[in-house]
Amino acid sequence: MADANNLKIDIEVPFPSERFAEIAYHVLRVEKEPKRSGVTKEITYHKNILHVKFSAQLARQLRVAVSSFFDNLNLMSETIEFAGDPVSSTYSHF
Amino acid sequence: MVIALGLEGSANKLGIGVIKDGEVLSNCRRTYITPPGEGFLPKETAEHHRKNVISVLRDALNQSGVKPAEIDVICYTKGPGMGAPLASVAVVARTLAQLWDKPLLGVNHCIGHIEMGRLITKATNPTVLYVSGGNTQVIAYSRHKYRIFGETIDIAVGNCLDRFARVLKLPNDPSPGYNIEQMAKKGKKFIELPYCVKGMDVSFSGILTFMEERADKFLKQGYSPEDLCFSLQETLFAMLVETTERALAHCDSREVLIVGGVGCNERLQEMMKQMCEERGAKLFATDERFCIDNGVMIAQAGYEMFKSGTRMKWEECFITQRYRTDEVEVTWRED
């Protein structure tokens, strides 16, 4: 089925390594967009790049979703800065 | 030995704490305080939490003396609460869990209050009155659930107090409820207000509207702001004591535990104590460190969950604004 949302934003975020991109993917993927936000978010990663695709019908909806995404991305980077490099090559408690 | 890190941010308090087998190693908190006459809104509150979370985390870890490697489980508030502030803190919890390779547990905020209250007061099977800015519930434990006996049908008692504080333009520092409590001590004249107990449930929104509409008139008639605070507190707390007493009688319980931010109000404690004494029951309450939202209560509830074998799938590590107390399977109690 074709995507009914005609406004789209694709974001690519490069990380220092694939492991960081993977962590970012897991941290950011679990929270779904609010039901009535009208936004769909698709998140994937390939090598060290995190890919996020947003689509919505209204620019306002898209702006809210993207701005909240960057808030979370910033917060996550700050947390990484504080907590240091990952201690393991994979997460063992999925 | 189990060490749990807890992160809480469901309302305007950002709290992070560490607990080790029931011993509080650290309990750090920072509150988002708005100007007099204003409440806190989700967006600004989330911003406050994002700005402060790393420094509160640093304080909590430093004070505890615990190294990340020693932590067994990371716990965060899954709900109920305001979406945006909850989600900000959850991002940090998920990132830490991934980086440090630790299990992650989403904790029900109300369960956090109850378990922290039980830990601090050593009450074993209390009838619980949970009163805060967002929640008002009378709770009793039965067959692995904390069951809600009665609750507010509209706004929480703390919300009623907070919003009345805005009418009088009382400061929100340290908290509107605290300032009402201090004013109420000097109140002399009691004004009769609507009293809204409906079976086991209570309703506060009508009382708030009544006060909002008439505050000016009362002040002009010669009642002082102190009289208004006094009358409001007496009325609201009488309603809470009434419903708690009924639950107590129904459960044939001998213990009452008050938790939640409004629970540190000494007048409420005094009224509840009087009722308990008349019934041969014992009142348990904690002070502001543990009554008001904090991180260590989330750590404590998470610790109990973790020890009893509860694990959460990563896919479930999101937040939810609505999350009722009786949805949680209490796996850590034998009775």
From TrEMBL, chain A:
Mention any one GO cellular component term assigned to this protein in its UniProt record.
cytoplasm
Where is it located? Answer: Cytoplasm; Nucleus
Q: Locate the coiled-coil region(s) and give their ranges.
A: none
Signal sequence annotation: none
Family matches, as InterPro entries: CTAG/Pcc1
- The keyword Lipoprotein belongs to this UniProt entry's keyword annotation: no
Keywords assigned: Cytoplasm, Nucleus, tRNA processing
Q: GO biological process annotations for this chain's record?
A: tRNA processing; tRNA threonylcarbamoyladenosine metabolic process
Q: Does the keyword Nucleus apply?
A: yes
| Function according to Swiss-Prot or TrEMBL | Component of the EKC/KEOPS complex that is required for the formation of a threonylcarbamoyl group on adenosine at position 37 (t(6)A37) in tRNAs that read codons beginning with adenine. The complex is probably involved in the transfer of the threonylcarbamoyl moiety of threonylcarbamoyl-AMP (TC-AMP) to the N6 group of A37. LAGE3 functions as a dimerization module for the complex.
UniProt lists the family membership as follows:
Belongs to the CTAG/PCC1 family.
Under what name is this protein listed?
L antigen family member 3
**Native species:** Tribolium castaneum (Red flour beetle)
Lineage, opening ranks: Eukaryota, Metazoa, Ecdysozoa, Arthropoda, Hexapoda
Q: Which gene encodes it?
A: AUGUSTUS-3.0.2_34712
Automatic annotation (TrEMBL), chain B:
Looking at the UniProt record for this protein, which Gene Ontology cellular component terms does it annotate, in alphabetical order? cytoplasm; EKC/KEOPS complex; nucleus
Residues reported in the UniProt entry to bind a divalent metal cation: H109, H113, Y130, D293
User: Could you confirm whether the keyword Metal-binding appears in this record?
Assistant: yes
Q: Which GO terms describe its biological process?
A: tRNA threonylcarbamoyladenosine modification
EC nos:
2.3.1.234
Q: By its UniProt entry, which PROSITE patterns does this protein fall under?
A: GLYCOPROTEASE (PS01016)
Cofactor note (record): Binds 1 divalent metal cation per subunit.
Question: What cofactor requirement does the entry state?
Answer: a divalent metal cation
Q: Which domain of life is it from?
A: Eukaryota
**Where does the record place the Gcp-like domain?**
30-299
Listed under catalytic activity are: L-threonylcarbamoyladenylate + adenosine(37) in tRNA = N(6)-L-threonylcarbamoyladenosine(37) in tRNA + AMP + H(+)
- List locations, semicolon-separated: Cytoplasm; Nucleus
Q: Name one GO molecular function term.
A: tRNA N(6)-L-threonylcarbamoyladenine synthase activity
Q: Does the keyword Transferase apply?
A: yes
- Residue sites binding substrate per the record: Y130, V131, S132, G133, G134, D162, G177, E181, N265
What the entry lists under Gene3D superfamilies is as follows: 3.30.420.40
Which Pfam families does the protein's record reference? Answer: TsaD
Tell me which UniProt keywords the record has, alphabetically.
Answer: Acyltransferase, Cytoplasm, Metal-binding, Nucleus, Transferase, tRNA processing
UniProt xrefs under InterPro entries: ATPase_NBD, Gcp-like_dom, KAE1/TsaD, Kae1_archaea_euk, Peptidase_M22_CS
Q: What family classification does the UniProt entry report for this protein?
A: Belongs to the KAE1 / TsaD family.
Q: Which NCBIfam families match?
A: arch_KAE1, gcp_kae1
Q: What is this protein called?
A: N(6)-L-threonylcarbamoyladenine synthase
Native organism: Tribolium castaneum (Red flour beetle)
Gene coding for it: AUGUSTUS-3.0.2_10335
